[in-house]
Design brief:
The protein has a five-stranded mixed beta sheet with strand order 2-1-3-5-4, sandwiched between helices. By secondary structure, the protein is mainly α. It starts with a helix and ends with a strand. It contains 28 helices and five strands.
């Protein structure tokens, strides 16, 4: 106990010391990567931004995280992060940057927290290097620059980690409760993903706490019960509320938060099961992929000449996107194929794995000489914590059936912690000539440089040969020189070691800057020279944002533009033109467009320097508003609650953002939620709640009967009254859909 008290006094003394001047530039780097140019993203992820717009309008919408101002359906995640975003928008005004700001600050906060967590046990240089590694892990700023949840989730889990470490140091049960309660808060950010760290929390508390087993079990049981209570608190309130008094729980199939947590946002992510309740989850995933791919429409280079566009179309038409098991080695969303080396496959490795070989060597060094039985040092205990965080999460991403690249931010804290702690430990072993352990430093440098060359090699057309050759050559040279100079102790050896660390962080630093350089994708953020495509694929398999780019999308009602028959999109299931899912894939792996479209729909151009200076509406395929349609709907509204109804959130979001008026996404996010029935729709029309319906063929899935009834009982509005014919005019919803009017007496 005296030892614990002395640790607390030591901590208080250290807190009174002046600010670490080496930390200042690290924080500034993190601030630049997370904050610079976020003001150019006008819509961010429009699905979530529309929800913030809706939540600003009433406490009812705020509590339930309603997607639309009318309280028809919620978004597909719990509300805590969106509560924070709404508060930010309330304070600073409703802007793209104001909903991104909390996540950007959380990214910076995670860098600071990791410094604090690592520094206390492993030393100040370990803390500095860990903080820098966290700041420069490419996927960290890529996610933090959007209004997606994961940056805030990681920050919250690091706060919980700080509380747990303090609980062990002070032997105070209150901190244990606080740590596990914080995981419960994180659950209300992204559900079961928050529980990924639980193995680390349990293992560390059992190993590190100096109390008897009865107390350990009692404390952990109580803390777990509190965590579960906090986790399900919002879900219980929502699920206990009558369905007619709240919005439908978006992306669930039974209108239940708990079903959403353990189904769509839970077990289905691991199994990749896309057949739950029919085809709805597969449809949701494919619609999400199509929407994210096309976010870069607003970033097109309109000055490109026609011959260049023609060449781009020919190149693009040869690229075929395959679903899992469809023959594409990159898998859906470019997350590779399940297996033990998945994190080293392209698409994932350049997001998170730059330092993994060095981390593996660091783990070997930090655990060298550890005996299963016996006492452990504080360093060994905390190393065990980070290992128990790293391994289960790495295993999940190695075998999971469905996830996005940006989820990999969950691996960033343990990788950065081991990079920092390992750099100091391996350097100490190297300087002290600790037998075989002295070879871990040059070995780690050599293998890490080799992996980085492998990661960069698919991008040679966009980044050139020089940086790839430079990292490889310098890594080999520095590793060999350090190996040769093992017996020498002088300042040159110190400089060589520092130079090696700089070399290993050089390309991750560049990759971390790519969302700023090339533009980002707010729906499916990733890092790399193709970061604006949102698929994280190298130029050989995806759009090179500097050189090639997607083809421009034809505006509704436009007859201009060239289209390739090989690049056409087909209609979704249930349409008269084929059995494809919305945003889905044809049998040959090609992307298919909404039904009812007479023209082929070309994918949009990616980021250009010209567009980087202006606002980016990167909210998705429909991130533009058809002003003529909006004018028509506004003029002819006779008191209806909803401006119009459409099949999915993609078509509805920009109109909610622009007007703040209710727009009904009949089938939720992807258009597949079983929310509406024909009888319910009839009742809404009779009550005068809605009369206009925009149908593009998107998201038909679970609402075919409703759409069929709308078509059979409506009056089609001539496109000349609402559809723009100018390619340069503001446009949306996407695709050449049809506007219908229904009035029942």
């Amino acid at each position: 106990m005296k030892h614990m008290n002395s640790e607390v006094k030591e901590e208080r003394t250290s807190n009174k010391k002046r600010i670490d001047l080496f930390l200042v530039p690290i924080v500034l780097i993190a601030a630049f990567l997370n904050l610079f140019k976020i003001w150019t993203d006008e819509y961010a992820n429009a699905y979530y931004t529309a929800a913030v717009k809706s939540m600003l309008q009433s406490l009812h919408n705020f509590f339930y995280a309603s997607f639309d101002p009318g309280g028809y359906v919620t978004i597909d995640k719990p509300p805590v992060v969106f509560w924070i975003q709404t508060i930010s928008a309330k304070i600073f005004g409703f802007h793209g940057w104001s909903v991104i700001l909390p996540q950007a600050l959380a990214g910076i906060g995670s860098v600071l927290l990791l410094y604090v967590l690592v520094k206390r046990t492993f030393g100040v240089w370990a803390g500095r290097f860990a903080a820098l590694a966290m700041a420069l892990t490419p996927i960290v700023p890529a996610v933090s620059r959007t209004n997606n949840i994961d940056s805030m989730l990681v920050f919250t889990l690091l706060v919980a980690t700080w509380m747990l470490f303090r609980a062990v140091r002070t032997a105070k049960f209150g901190w244990v409760l606080a740590a596990f309660a914080m995981i419960g808060v994180a659950f209300n950010m992204k559900m079961l993903q928050a529980y990924m760290v639980l193995p680390a929390f349990y293992v560390f508390y059992v190993v590190a706490t100096k109390i008897n087993w009865k107390k350990k079990i009692a404390f952990l049981t109580t803390a777990t019960a509190l965590m579960l209570a906090v986790s399900v608190s919002w879900a219980v309130v929502v699920d206990s509320t009558s369905a007619d008094k709240r919005p439908y729980m978006g992306s669930s199939q039974t209108n239940s938060v708990l079903e959403l947590a353990f189904g769509y946002n839970g077990i289905n992510r691991l199994t990749g099961n896309t057949s739950v309740t029919g085809s709805s989850h597969k449809q949701s995933a494919q619609t999400e992929q199509q929407t994210a791919s096309s976010e870069t429409k607003q970033n097109s280079n309109s000055s490109a000449d026609s011959s260049q566009s023609s060449n781009q179309r020919k190149s693009s038409s040869s690229q075929k996107m395959q679903a899992p098991g469809g023959g594409n080695q990159n898998g859906m969303f470019n997350t590779g194929n399940p297996g033990p080396f998945r994190l080293f496959q392209k698409g994932l490795s350049d997001q998170i794995s730059w330092l993994l070989p060095f981390v593996i060597f660091s783990i070997v060094g930090l655990f060298a000489g550890v005996k299963f039985k016996g006492s452990y040092t504080t360093k060994q205990k905390e190393s065990l914590f980070w290992l128990a965080w790293l391994l289960p999460v790495a295993v999940f991403f190695s075998i999971a059936g469905f996830f996005h690249q940006y989820y990999l931010i969950m691996l960033a804290p343990p990788i950065a912690a081991f990079a920092g702690a390992g750099a100091v430990a391996l350097w100490s072993m190297y300087k002290q000539h600790n037998g075989w352990k002295s070879w871990l430093l040059p070995g780690g440098i050599l293998t890490t440089a080799a992996l980085q060359v492998y990661i960069m090699s698919p991008y040679v057309s966009s980044i050139g040969v020089a940086p790839i050759a430079g990292v490889g050559a310098l890594g080999v040279i520095l590793a060999l020189v350090l190996a040769v100079r093992k017996q020498r102790k002088n300042s040159l050896t110190n400089y060589l070691g520092a130079a090696a660390m700089v070399v290993l962080l050089a390309m991750p630093a560049y990759w971390a800057m790519t969302p700023i350089i090339y533009g980002g994708n707010s729906m499916l953020p990733s890092a790399g020279p193709d970061s604006s495509s949102g698929m994280g694929e190298p130029p050989s398999t995806a759009t090179n944002s500097k050189q090639s780019g997607f083809n421009s999308m034809q505006p509704p009602g436009s007859s201009s533009g060239n289209s390739s028959s090989n690049n056409q999109m087909q209609p979704p299931s249930g349409s008269s033109n084929g059995g494809q899912m919305p945003g889905g894939l044809s049998n040959n792996g090609q992307m298919q467009p909404p039904s009812g479209s007479s023209n082929s729909v070309q994918m949009p151009n990616s980021f250009s320097n010209k567009s980087s200076s202006s606002k980016r509406k990167s909210g998705g395929m429909n991130a533009e508003v058809n002003q003529k349609l909006l004018n028509y709907l506004t003029k002819n509204n006779t008191g209806e609650k909803y401006l119009f109804a459409t099949t999915d959130s993609t078509s509805a979001a920009p109109y909610i953002i622009k007007t703040g008026k209710p727009v009904m996404a009949m089938g939720g996010f992807s258009g597949s939620d079983p929310i509406l029935t024909v009888s319910k729709l009839k009742a809404m029309i009779k009550k005068g709640e809605v009369k206009y319906f925009y149908l593009s063929g998107m998201g038909k899935g679970g609402q075919s009967d409703v759409i069929t009834w709308i078509k059979e009982n409506s009056k089609e509005i001539p496109s000349s009254k609402w559809q723009s014919t100018s390619p340069s005019a503001q446009q949306g919803p996407s695709g050449n859909g049809t506007l219908y009017e229904i009035t029942l007496k």
